[in-house]
Amino acid sequence: MDLITLWFLIVGVLLIGYFVLDGFDFGVGMALPVLGNDNTDRRLIINTIGPVWDLNETWLIVAGACLFAAFPEWYATMFSGFYLALLLILVALILRGVSFEYRHQGKGRQWTRWFDQFIFWGSLLPPLLWGTAFANLIQGLPIRPLETGGWVYEGTLLTLLNPYGLLGGITLTLLCFTHGLVFIALKTMGDMRERARTLATKAGLVALVSAAAFLVWTVLQHLGDSNAGVVILLAALAAVALVAGILFNLRGREGWAFTFNALTIAFALLTIFMALHPHLMISNIDPAYSMTIAGAASSQKTLELMTWVAAFTLPLVLAYQAWTYWIFRKRLSRAHIPSEEEAHA
């Protein structure tokens, strides 16, 4: 395997890691107004991801850095063309992160309510916009090469808001919502666990319908491609994993349900990456204008240096993350949440 293909796979794995891990964070945030009957419930929900949410978001930073170093033309074209969508994602993530830190300052009910709203919208918008953006990558975008080198995106934010793109955004949002509900059920006890598990089943069924429509549409668009067989296989695996997650959730096996939900997101993203390969961005102006992996990659020396750095650092990151999840593996309940007076004592 050459280094260009290797780094395409590494970037893909990092993005999958981000959407699997930060995906349940988003789902937990979206569940806040639905499952949080009172402030104690909402604090319990937030505490399920309290030790790990910021660690999960580092996957996006690492993926972005690797994307910039390994495929600078892809990074430049996508970030300049999608700048408004990415700005909205950034603002949403900032508001969400600030809210986790400031909502508990105890400056009144209205103060807390505002930050709860920021957590909800900051958890809803990123998967919706990310899903829309990635769906558009494989459907095709108005890009063309420049005479001076590189590519330019000739659309706007509204260009991304087409039926297929929006379906991709809605599908990822529903998958993250289901993923987050299962995580809440996995991390809590008592009434919260039962309510989260019940809602996860309902959300999972809706996600199944949306995901099936999106995956079938994706497969139909790429039936004539050389890697159509792999795309169909990965789409089928994503559907099977989602069904398995719903069934395990019904049986109260939240650990297995969470695992299969994670596999659903992973297989769905792999379907997108394989539908893209060997391109990074497909042009709907002229297929000849499409951005290829080889055409957007960095030099061989850059990729060699990055490979050595990744071989040393990635195992450390994975080991630290695994250790963190192991330390904070126990379930929580309302009894673990201190009263407002104790929290500010």
From TrEMBL:
Main location: membrane
Keywords in alphabetical order: Cell membrane, Electron transport, Heme, Iron, Membrane, Metal-binding, Transmembrane, Transmembrane helix, Transport
Pfam families referenced in this protein's UniProt entry, alphabetically: Cyt_bd_oxida_II (PF02322)
Topology of the protein relative to the lipid bilayer: Multi-pass membrane protein
Membrane-spanning ranges: 6-32, 77-98, 118-138, 164-186, 198-220, 226-248, 255-276, 305-328
GO annotation terms (biological process): aerobic electron transport chain
GO CC aspect terms: cytochrome complex; plasma membrane
Domain of life: Bacteria
GO MF term (any one): metal ion binding
Cellular compartment(s): Cell membrane
Stated family: Belongs to the cytochrome ubiquinol oxidase subunit 2 family.
Protein name: Cytochrome d ubiquinol oxidase subunit II
Organism expressing this protein natively: Leucobacter weissii
